[in-house]
TrEMBL record:
<dbReference type="InterPro" id="IPR000719">
    <property type="entry name" value="Prot_kinase_dom"/>
</dbReference>
<dbReference type="GO" id="GO:0005886">
    <property type="term" value="C:plasma membrane"/>
</dbReference>
<dbReference type="GO" id="GO:0009742">
    <property type="term" value="P:brassinosteroid mediated signaling pathway"/>
</dbReference>
<keyword id="KW-0472">Membrane</keyword>
<keyword id="KW-0067">ATP-binding</keyword>
<keyword id="KW-1070">Brassinosteroid signaling pathway</keyword>
<feature type="domain" description="Protein kinase">
    <location>
        <begin position="63"/>
        <end position="318"/>
    </location>
</feature>
<keyword id="KW-0449">Lipoprotein</keyword>
<dbReference type="InterPro" id="IPR011990">
    <property type="entry name" value="TPR-like_helical_dom_sf"/>
</dbReference>
<dbReference type="InterPro" id="IPR058209">
    <property type="entry name" value="TPR_BSK1_C"/>
</dbReference>
<feature type="region of interest" description="Disordered">
    <location>
        <begin position="1"/>
        <end position="39"/>
    </location>
</feature>
<dbReference type="Pfam" id="PF25575">
    <property type="entry name" value="TPR_BSK1_C"/>
</dbReference>
<dbReference type="InterPro" id="IPR045845">
    <property type="entry name" value="BSK"/>
</dbReference>
<dbReference type="InterPro" id="IPR001245">
    <property type="entry name" value="Ser-Thr/Tyr_kinase_cat_dom"/>
</dbReference>
<dbReference type="GO" id="GO:0005524">
    <property type="term" value="F:ATP binding"/>
</dbReference>
<keyword id="KW-0519">Myristate</keyword>
<keyword id="KW-0723">Serine/threonine-protein kinase</keyword>
Length: 496
């Protein structure tokens, strides 16, 4: 394949004004009478078209699924990228989960108003045909479940577990204050970590997620007792579920509430604690958190505490509030910033706009190869050269007409026939591979295009697009920067 010069990749309603959380305040009983200031901006809630979300998720590609249960999840969540380059999570409900369109739209719009810095905020929805989709902010650092139960590098430290408990209580308290007192199926999968490593509560749990609004899907071992009796949840049920999350944080594993309460009553609380946390906490602090969990798990709903009490109990247990979450979790924040001097092709690749990329490649044609040994190395006018010309012609026609499988076939023949390879043919075949969901082959061809013309921005931009499709965003941004640098170098040489 030749020597690659590339860095080796490790293979609203529409009328509503934007909602800013600046200045919005929520009481924080845990810190005395202070307030929690909302210092981040959230896009306005809007209705998206199905076409927009298809493009954002690459036609709901399996490679974009981020649900921890994958395709087996009843309602699959996809990672997506909107046309403005914003990353989002798109939840696709199973067919006919919400047969009443008006009910779905009203419920989504209501949840969209519940904005808070401790929430994964809902920013849009879509209801077309049988499709029911929600669009939320994208959280890049996985779920609490993964960090607690499936950790690979290091267990979640004690201080971070306390922070999760406090942030979740803040989020639930805020929802309750806005009269969103029911949260469905609160568990470790519903807590996600943002780019700073801060824990946030998914807004998806505020949706009723059923035909009649009564569904409560969960493991029966962890279901609030009143749901087993009546088939309904009440605000106090959320407190019970919060208690199960505290058990998860304390133990680092799934412990049925009844078993946990037996251990607490028998004063065998040490058996509850995750052994990996040894030496990280004061015994009094652990005892207080265990006691709080037991209060939340009381059989009678009236015996459980309220959110004001929860916040006041967890707040004093935070001993390292000044330490950033990403430090506690051992995360390195991605400081890559997209280069500002991107060509139209670079910008189209950055936002993964395949239509725009195709148009630009068509308009550019083969002119970037002018000045090479010859256009396509047609050295002698023989029957073989005529065959090459015909194959190129048919490939270009298929590419123009968006018959990308045919284009791949013709360009593949052309690559074999040509004695000197063409960077443009590799670029066009790379794009055709991208459109047909073959990102790894696309990356290979884009790298081959770079071999043909080592400082060719198009090759870098197409590599960035392929890397984005493969979920390798950091490498993709590096490629965009490299492409922009070569673009700037070319521009300066032309001026001179």
């Amino acid at each position: 394949m030749g020597c690659f010069f590339s860095k080796n990749a490790t293979l609203r309603s529409r009328e509503d004004p934007p909602i800013s959380l600046h200045g919005s305040k929520t009481p924080d009983p845990g810190n005395g009478d202070s307030v929690v200031e909302q210092d981040n901006k959230v896009p306005a809630f809007k209705e998206y078209s199905l076409d927009e979300l298809r493009r954002a998720t690459n036609e709901f590609s399996r490679s974009n699924i981020v649900s921890e249960s994958g395709e087996k999840a009843p309602n699959v969540v996809y990672k997506g990228k909107l046309e403005n380059n914003q990353l989002v999570a798109v939840k696709r409900f199973s067919k006919l989960s919400w047969p009443d369109v008006q009910q779905f739209m009203a419920e989504a719009a209501g949840v969209g108003k519940v904005r808070h810095k401790r929430m994964v905020n809902l920013i849009g929805c879509c209801a077309e045909g049988d499709e029911r989709l929600l669009v939320a902010e994208y959280m890049p650092n996985d779920t609490l479940s993964k960090h607690l139960f499936h950790w690979e590098k290091q267990p979640l430290p004690w201080e971070m577990r306390v922070r999760v408990g406090y942030h979740v209580a803040e989020a639930l308290s805020h929802c309750s204050m806005l009269n969103r007192k029911l949260y469905h199926d609160l568990n470790a999968y519903r807590v996600l970590f943002d780019e700073d490593g801060d824990p946030r509560l998914s807004s998806f749990g505020l949706m009723k997620n059923s035909r009649d609004g009564k569904s409560y899907s969960t493991n029966l071992a962890y279901t609030p007792p009143e749901f087993l009796r009546t088939g309904r949840i009440i605000p106090e049920s959320v407190i019970f579920s919060y208690g199960t999350v505290l058990l998860d944080l304390l133990s680092g594993k799934h412990i049925p509430p009844s078993h946990a309460l037996d251990l607490i009553r028998g004063k065998n609380v040490l058996l509850l604690l995750d052994s990996s946390l040894e030496g990280q906490y004061a015994n009094d602090d652990a005892t207080k958190l265990i006691d709080l969990a037991s209060k939340c798990l009381q059989f009678e709903a009236r015996d459980r505490p309220d959110f004001k009490f929860l916040l006041s109990e967890v707040a004093p247990l935070q001993k390292q509030k000044e330490v950033a979450s990403k430090v506690l979790m051992g995360l390195t924040k991605n400081t890559n910033v997209l280069p500002t001097m991107l060509s139209p092709l670079g910008k189209a690749c950055a936002r993964m706009d395949l239509t725009a990329v195709h148009d630009i490649l068509l308009k550019t044609g083969y002119k970037d190869e002018e000045g090479a040994e010859n256009e396509l190395s047609f050295q002698e006018w023989t029957q073989q050269v005529q065959d090459i010309l015909n194959t190129k012609k048919f490939g270009d026609i298929a590419f123009r007409d968006k018959e990308f499988k045919d284009a791949i076939e013709y360009y593949s023949k052309l690559v074999v026939m040509m004695s000197v390879p063409s960077a443009t043919v590799f670029a066009r075949r790379a794009f055709s591979y991208l459109v047909t969901d073959q990102a790894e082959l696309a990356l290979r061809d884009a790298m081959q295009g770079q071999v043909c013309i080592p400082d060719w921005p198009t090759a870098f931009y197409l590599q960035a697009l392929a890397l984005s499709k493969l979920g390798m965003d950091t490498d993709a941004q590096d490629m965009l920067k490299d492409g922009a640098a070569f673009e700037a170098k070319r521009s300066n040489s032309w001026r001179n």
